[in-house]
Design goal:
14 helices, Rossmann fold, 33% strand, alpha+beta, 4 domains, 751 residues, Immunoglobulin-like, disordered N terminus, globular, 6-stranded mixed beta sheet, single chain, 49 strands
Length: 751
């Protein structure tokens, strides 16, 4: 029998609307749960599926760059930068990828089929000229669009990857944009500590026919208030009316330093007309490295195939020189000349709602969240050529689509790094914020000489451990990445502890044959030691010790004598792991007879993931003996498990009905029905209410009308009383009538 003996934490977050009746790359819920998913799509997945945050495993994925052949050799620094952000980078030349959009799209599709962790695609080049790179054209007005490259699976317009373009006409312009992007992520506060909590909003109520719209300014007033409430110290506004000549006001505001520039109004490829700010005005900017992100929700301002070359978007991102930049770091806007005020307003509002309220700050996902607002506000506009399809195509990103927008002065990481030695290559460190708080879910990239040695996420304590694979290295670089933070970096010198033995290999095997072993699964492990010296070693009596949650956790091991420059495989050991020490990893040590640690290592495990649904319905002022439908989404078999139902606030009470000692078994990848052994007494809960989950760990927190009123939680315990798993879910439905409503996972319906 197998027992899971360590608490598995659950983090519950809400999602933002991403689209109705759509799915992530056509996957079912069962295909997503417990599997690694691209980090950029995590909010989309939580919105589209009835899935807990604890049931997905978001990881930084891969990044595909396609560039003209003459440009590829100049991308080394940028490729290394993207790797430092945790991306596995593919670099393809245009000759490798195809000479037309259809062939290039097929190249992207093939990479996605090979690597489902593909998140972003970056195209480099203009549609003509020195670095010609083709694009698609959409609709009756032939609006240039790169979004067609992202529509790879199914027949919807939800992107399967996120895409951006560096539109350049020279290598100097390429260097400018890359320098801006790297500086923005790595050292944005070098010249001004406060510029990123200032913003500029420009808007104009104008039309050449009646009625004259008034909502561009209304939307902009709303955004100003949202930014100030969020924490911006200063938000400048330049509006028409009354101002027609906007440049004399816009230029000084940008030169002073603003993190974002937002426009709603009237314009074309030349720029904004009410108030005026045109391509020629970009040359008058002098903002240096204070390069904001431009959001231009107005016609044609991002038409990078226009006869006006550069268009406003191109002028903004190309502005300046590699050492004295100007303009902005990225630009979002449409290519079509006849976009509509009512749709642009929605995209503007939903995009900022996603960024400010849901922390969706990478440009690709943020823009898609804005476009998806049309699904809710204009549900009937879902046909071919109608608003949802149209705006999903004509809005594009010039710049790095994975750029994380700063919405305030970013924090900075502190590193606490334990010594690393060449004999074991075990790395153990933690990251904290400037005020000392641990920073969980930080994307870590461990590099040397431009190559990734290890990558992953920190755990809830901000800690990251790994056993690296390398030979003859003297140092490594650690990079930390998270929204709201400047990219962190630490160089670590690899120490020499004078050991002539090294732990050169860890071989793990299981009956299932999976790459990672699951908790509760029997594991076979063999360690390889190498004698790095020119003299033989004597036999040593040692013991291998695991740091808890492993049975057995201690193994006597004799290290035999090893010939010079030779290796030996130690006798294999067999054990079962019931929990992890740090993140997804288990720590082991080899100690000599005096207790001195010779080697420390980490091995990675797969944690269990469960789906829990209430089968029963509840009625106010009644007693319910609930049944649960529990799905085991992992490959582990769990036996002898107790389920506990516990109240955590007013609204419901729980009492044992005499059978609370029931034990349960969970077969891999199957759903089974389970009694809880408890009676739930529901108080007089009103009909017509919906109880929502608040964000928290280890408990379900429910609130009436989004106000946090806690009701109950469910726990699963081992027979010895140790907590096994805690499950909670998003909503407790209270219908307005007594008809049935489909139950949401681990929620109790009040009928």
């Amino acid at each position: 029998m197998y027992y899971f003996k360590k608490l598995v934490n659950i983090l519950i977050i809400s999602g933002v609307l991403f689209g109705a009746n759509s799915s992530f790359r056509g996957y079912s819920k069962d295909q997503i749960i417990s599997k690694k998913i691209p980090l950029a799509f995590s909010n989309m997945i939580l919105s589209q599926y009835d899935i807990l945050t604890s049931q997905i495993n978001p990881q930084r994925g891969s990044y595909l760059i396609i560039a003209p052949d003459g440009v590829v050799n100049y991308l080394g620094d940028f490729v290394s930068f993207k790797k430092s952000q945790g991306f596995d980078v593919y670099l393809r030349s245009l000759s490798e990828s195809g000479g037309n959009p259809v062939e290039i799209k097929n190249t992207i599709y093939n990479v996605l089929m090979t690597d489902p962790m593909l998140e972003y695609v970056l195209l480099i080049g203009d549609v003509d000229g020195f670095a010609e790179f083709p694009s698609f054209y959409y609709g009756p007005e032939n609006d240039v669009t790169d979004q067609e490259y992202t529509h790879l699976l199914g027949d919807d317009v939800v992107p399967d990857v996120f895409i951006g373009r560096l539109s350049i006409d020279s290598l100097s312009e390429l260097a400018v944009i890359m320098s801006k992007t790297i500086q923005y992520a790595r050292n944005p506060l070098a010249y001004d500590q406060n510029w990123l909590d200032r913003g500029l909003i420009v808007a104009g109520n104008y039309a050449n026919t009646y009625p004259i719209p008034i909502t561009p300014k209304w939307t902009s007033y709303w955004l100003r208030d949202e930014l100030l409430n969020y924490g911006f110290n200063e938000v400048d506004t330049v509006f028409y009316p009354p101002l027609q000549q906007g440049a004399p006001y816009i230029i000084p505001a940008i030169n002073e330093g603003v993190g974002i520039v937002n426009y709603r109004g009237w314009g074309d490829a030349n720029g904004w007309h009410y108030p005026e700010f045109h391509v020629d005005d970009v040359n008058d900017l002098n903002n240096g490295w204070l390069t904001p992100v431009f959001f231009s929700y107005v016609c044609n301002s991002n038409d990078f195939a226009n006869n006006v070359d550069p268009c406003l978007a191109e002028a903004i991102i190309r502005g300046g020189t590699p050492t004295v930049p100007k303009g902005g770091v990225a630009f979002i806007g449409p290519s079509d000349l006849h976009t509509s005020t009512k749709y642009n307003n929605v995209i503007n509002a939903y995009m900022y709602d996603a960024m400010l309220n849901y922390n969706i700050v990478e440009l690709g996902p943020a823009m898609q969240a804005g476009q998806s607002g049309l699904v809710k506000e204009f549900p009937a506009q879902s046909g071919p050529g109608e608003a949802q399809e149209f705006y999903a195509n004509v809005y594009n990103i010039l710049g790095d689509p994975s750029l994380q927008v700063y919405l305030d002065t970013p924090d900075e990481f502190n590193f606490n790094i334990q010594p690393i030695y060449s004999s074991e290559r075990f790395l153990d460190f933690s990251v904290t914020s400037s005020n000392g708080d641990p920073v969980p879910q930080t994307v870590i990239s461990i590099m040397n000489n431009g190559d990734i040695l290890s990558k992953g996420n920190t755990d809830l304590d901000g800690r990251y451990i790994t056993t690296l694979e390398f030979e003859d290295l003297t140092d490594i670089d650690i990079y930390a990445n998270k929204s709201g933070f400047v990219q962190g970096h630490a160089n670590v010198v690899i120490g020499d502890n004078s050991s002539i033995l090294t732990l050169s290999n860890i071989d793990i095997s299981t009956l299932s044959g999976n790459q990672l072993f699951t908790l509760s699964e029997t594991v076979n492990m063999a360690l390889t030691l190498k004698n790095e010296s020119n003299t033989g070693t004597d036999a040593i009596q040692t013991e291998l010790v695991f740091m808890g949650n492993v049975l057995p956790n201690l193994f006597p091991i004799e290290i035999p004598s090893i010939s010079p420059n030779s290796s030996v495989i130690l006798p294999p050991i067999t054990f079962t792991c019931y929990g992890t020490n740090v993140g997804e990893s288990v720590i082991g040590k080899i100690q000599d007879s005096d207790g001195f640690t010779l080697f420390t290592f980490a091995i990675e495990a797969e944690k269990p993931v469960f789906g829990i649904d209430f089968i029963d319905s509840g009625v106010p002022s009644s007693i319910l003996n609930p049944e649960l439908l529990i799905t085991n989404y992992s490959g582990g078999f769990y036996d002898g498990i107790n389920i506990s139902l516990t109240p955590i606030s007013e609204g419901a009470s729980v009492s044992s009905n005499g059978s609370s000692n029931l034990t349960n078994s969970f077969v891999p990848f199957e759903s089974t029905t389970h009694q809880t052994g408890y009676d739930v007494s529901l108080e007089n809960v009103a009909y017509g209410k919906i109880l929502w989950t608040n964000n928290n760990y280890n408990q379900a927190i429910f609130g009436f009308d989004r106000r946090p009123t806690e009701l109950f939680k469910q726990d699963m315990y081992n027979k010895d009383g140790t907590p096994k798993y805690k499950a909670s879910r998003t909503a407790l439905d209270v219908p307005s009538e007594k008809e049935g409503i489909t139950s949401k996972s681990a929620s109790l319906r009040i009928l």
